[in-house]
Design goal:
Elements (H helix, E strand, L loop, with lengths): L7 H5 L2 H4 L3 E5 L10 E4 L13 E5 L11 H10 L4 E5 L9 H10 L3 E4 L5 H35 L4 H12 L3 E5 L4 E5 L5 H5 L2 H6 L8 E3 L4 E8 L2 E8 L6 H22 L4 H15 L6 H10 L7 E8 L8 H22 L2 E8 L2 E8 L5 H11 L14 E4 L6 H6 L1 H12 L11 H12 L4 H21 L3 H10 L4 H8 L3 H15 L6 H17 L6
Parallel strand pairs: 2-3, 3-4, 4-5
Antiparallel strand pairs: 1-5, 6-7, 6-10, 8-9, 9-10, 11-13, 11-14, 12-13
Helix pairs in contact: 3-4, 5-6, 5-9, 6-9, 12-13, 15-16, 16-21, 17-21, 18-21, 19-20
Length: 545
């Protein structure tokens, strides 16, 4: 809620003033000055009577008569920072002197003529009632602002919550940026993110960083530094021109203090950047960002450059059994930091964030001159090596999805990429630095689901009788079936691989068919047995021949 201050424009709209048929003769562009008080005078010496920001009411006595000096009178008001002069016309003063009007225009002093009589006491009562009421509401607003940010500090609220509350209080968008002019938190209010953040870094650099809250830059942003005096680490920005600059500045200053307290508690400069990127990535993956321009604007504001190619990657770390939630959070934080550090070392432009237990999602933005494999190699080299111990330094498995020319499509593939990483982790140890879907295929899926009761039941129903026969009598029928499936039923090739005659092969295949009660020439039977053998071999820790 923002309380509007009384201005000369709003004062002229009051019924008691409007009844006098006011006409603005000078200073039309300065009617939005805040009115502190209303002063009625019929003397021509006002120098010591005004304190600034008053509206002066008169019936014109200082402007008529042999000793009147209209030019001197209006100059006094301008020097005293008066908000304006309202003169009631009448028989004594049917029109304002031309010199008064011209001097008021030259000095930028609003000059208003009332063409009908008005009781000045009614004006002063109405205006002073509004001013006192507005001052009371201002105190109430200040108290509410203090309570809001005090409670946020006590609750250890993060930057997003603090910025959101500031936005609600001033009823406008608020942006928190770091020292590099990258957006780390945003409360967009009723504005589209794409419009609000388009070209943010360039626009922000045109708005100088001030030491105190105040307007800055060609767009009239109201800004407030965040951090210790002389060494700010960020800045709060209310884009656009503030409706009530004084109250907006107060809210921004209290928000800045809350952010600094939050930072002192956290003692980590990169936390805000992590949170902002993670929040955006989750919104993209969940499909809550529907407009490509909005997504790109937000990503660019976080430091990721626009590019012709976007590649989704999932870094899957070793599972952990840590029972303590705080310990798990610290571990996840360490993993995310390792990804950010690797991206910096590899000089890969990207956004990244946690997308589930032990998973960090990454969207790489690649220039047309950068090959995808080159970027992946640089990232893999920068990451710690994989380890069998569940420690933060254990390197992850990298799953890589299909690239896209759009950010939103790349993000939509993140869940599939997570599956690829899960499947790759279940494969036998390999030196491969990353995995695509063509690397894991069916074997990867089966490896991932090997403990699923439904899969085990399927494998047992397909192979159980043959495995029981082999355990009791031997004979190598399981190995022969494996060879038959691998060679896609080519009997001549199977006989050669098994070093037996065609006739002997036919007999053994009929034996297998009899035990399993299947037709090996049936494509569905061959496929089902192949999957069942794959499940069996993976669970035995072996590899299909």
């Amino acid at each position: 809620m923002v309380v509007m201050s009384l201005t000369l424009r709003t004062m002229l709209a009051l019924d008691v003033v409007a009844s006098g048929r006011p006409e603005v003769l000078a200073g039309q562009d300065d009617l939005d000055r805040v009115v502190r008080w209303v002063h009625v005078t019929e003397v021509d010496d006002m120098e010591d009577l005004l304190g600034g920001h008053e509206v002066v009411l008169t019936t014109g006595l200082p402007l008529v008569g042999p000793t009147a000096d209209p030019a001197r009178f209006v100059e006094q008001l301008a020097r005293s920072s008066a908000c304006g002069l309202i003169v009631e016309l009448g028989p004594r003063l049917p029109a304002l002197p031309d010199i008064l009007v011209s001097d008021a225009r030259r000095l930028g002093l609003p000059l208003v003529a009332l063409h009908a009589p008005v009781r000045f006491v009614s004006i002063t009562e109405a205006v002073h009632r509004l001013i006192v009421g507005e001052q009371y509401l201002g105190l109430e607003f200040a108290q509410r602002t203090h309570e809001v940010f005090t409670n946020l500090s006590l609750d250890s609220a993060d930057a997003s919550a603090i910025v959101a509350e500031a936005s609600d209080l001033i009823d406008a968008a608020v942006v928190l940026e770091d020292a590099g002019h990258h957006v780390v938190a945003l409360a967009q209010h009723e504005q589209a993110p794409g419009d609000l953040l388009r070209g943010w870094e360039e626009r922000s650099r045109r708005a100088p960083v001030l030491e105190e809250p105040g307007p800055s830059g060609p767009e009239g942003w109201l800004t407030c530094p965040v951090g210790l005096r002389g060494s700010p680490w960020g800045r709060l920005v209310a884009p656009g021109r503030a409706v009530d600059p004084e109250r907006t500045a107060m809210v921004m200053q209290r928000a800045a203090q809350a952010l600094q307290l939050s930072r002192l508690v956290e003692r980590d400069a990169t936390r805000l950047q992590f949170q902002a990127q993670e929040s955006l990535l989750q919104e993209l993956v969940e499909g809550r960002v529907q407009d490509e321009a909005d997504g790109l604007a937000r990503a660019r504001a976080l430091g990721m450059r626009a590019a012709p190619t976007y590649v989704p990657v999932v870094a899957l770390f070793e599972p952990t059994s840590l029972p303590d939630q705080i310990a798990r959070q610290r571990r996840a934080r360490a993993q995310l930091e390792s990804i950010f550090e690797a991206l910096r070392e590899a000089r890969v432009s990207a956004i990244a964030g946690g997308i589930g237990d032990e998973r960090v999602g990454i969207i790489m933005a690649l220039r047309s001159s950068t090959r995808e494999d080159t970027a992946l190699e640089a990232l893999a080299r920068a990451l710690p090596a994989r380890s069998v111990t569940p420690s933060p330094s254990s390197g992850p498995v990298l799953g890589v999805g299909r690239s896209s020319s759009t950010l939103l499509v790349a993000a939509s593939r993140m869940r599939t990429v997570a599956h690829i990483a899960e499947a790759a982790r279940a494969l036998p140890a390999t030196s491969a630095p990353w995995f695509r879907s063509t690397d894991v295929r069916l074997r990867g899926l089966v490896a991932q689901l090997q403990d699923d009761e439904r899969l085990l039941g399927f494998a047992e129903s397909e192979l159980g009788p043959l495995l029981a026969h082999e355990a009791e009598r031997g004979g190598g029928l399981v190995d022969l079936l494996r060879t038959y499936v691998r060679l896609q039923g080519n009997k001549a090739a199977v006989a050669q691989a098994a070093h037996i005659s065609r006739q002997a092969l036919y007999g053994r295949l009929r034996k297998i068919e009899s035990i399993l009660m299947v037709d090996l020439d049936d494509a569905d039977s061959s496929l089902s047995l192949g999957v069942a053998l794959l499940v069996h071999d993976i669970r035995q820790g072996g590899s299909p021949a």
